[in-house]
Amino acid sequence: xxxxxxxxxxxxxxxxxxxxxxxxxxxxxxxxxxxxxxxxxxxxxxxxxxxxxxxxxxxxxxxxxxxxxxxxxxxxxxxxxxxxxxxxxxxxxxxxxxxxxxxxxxxxxxxxxxxxxxxxxxxxxxxxxxxxxxxxxxxxxxxxxxxxxxxxxxxxxxxxxxxxxxxxxxxxxxxxxxxxxxxxxxxxxxxxxxxxxxxxxxxxxxxxxxxxxxxxxxxxxxxxxxxxxxxxxxxxxxxxxxxxxxxxxxxxxxxxxxxxxxxxxxxxxxxxxxxxxxxxxxxxxxxxxxxxxxxxxxxxxxxxxxxxxxxxxxxxxxxxxxxxxxxxxxxxxxxxxxxxxxxxxxxxxxxxxxxxxxxxxxxxxxxxxxxxxxxxxxxxxxxxxxx
Length: 387
Fold this sequence. Notes:
This protein is an alpha/beta fold. Helix content is 35%, strand content 26%. Strands 1-2-4-3-5-16-6-15 form an eight-stranded mixed beta sheet, with helices on both faces. The protein has helices at residues 5-8, 11-23, 32-45, 104-121, 141-147, 150-153, 207-218, 220-224, 263-284, 303-317, 335-341, 369-383, and strands at residues 49-54, 58-64, 71-77, 127-133, 156-166, 173-174, 178-181, 183-192, 196-197, 232-241, 247-248, 251-260, 287-294, 299-301, 322-323, 344-352. The longest helix has 22 residues, at 263-284.
């Protein structure tokens, strides 16, 4: 695999960076220690500008190339997850209840590795904007950075990102033009009935019966309201009620995640969700409180930029390790906001066997960091060659 020799020489240093980040995870927008560590590395690397405090703890660093030209954006997310780590590695999380179980520590490391190489070689025209983003897992830090004007402020013309993919062959790049990942919406439903003794249910209004009826009917949105050639997921992921075997409770609540790709299907799912909750509430005699929150939009790759990124990936990993027409998936990603603001592409990078994303035993494979850093570096050099 043709990892750039200079970047291969950083492998030990990159491992040190990544394992420090792994041991010190932070959540959401509160990534201040992570950001401080990144800023220290950026100054050591010798970037030309460092802009801090974007979206609370985000960073944009600028590298200037040889002469005038456009600005290309490269993004890495840097927040962790609220998970108690069970990996048992020497660099395991030092913070109880927090862990880098999605590999954002690896994403930061790959971007820092590319930055170090690009700062040394400067074999590109124009500028590179290195985007270190908080709150991908929860909070939509990508949207906040866009709303705070990073694209216009730094003149970013196109933007790219990669995500590690455990249990995908090592070094394999996966992407596709158009929708790559789904929009994600969340619904919370609270039902109020009239509690009482389990032996006299006729004297109660049972919210559990109502919840079960609603949950069953919600599955008809996919099976009966959506075309079979469309993609939609409606998954009820929590249901809570009751305190004892002989008490019919006063309340029940449940929540659901709804995943889709197109505005029409997204609107249909919300409309039918509301109809089913309201109709079943009336039928069962309960009151229903529904909060339906629209989350990240679909991650939609731009065709030309996706083809370009795939060409660079083939240069790095070879033809057999690039799937540029992969199936889309129902996960979600707030890089979607950046792709709404600018053309670009998002790719997955296989890291080989291991615990899956968001698993308590997950640990990023350090061996793949030079591959990702090489991809980022070659992306810049190919997109913006010096005159």
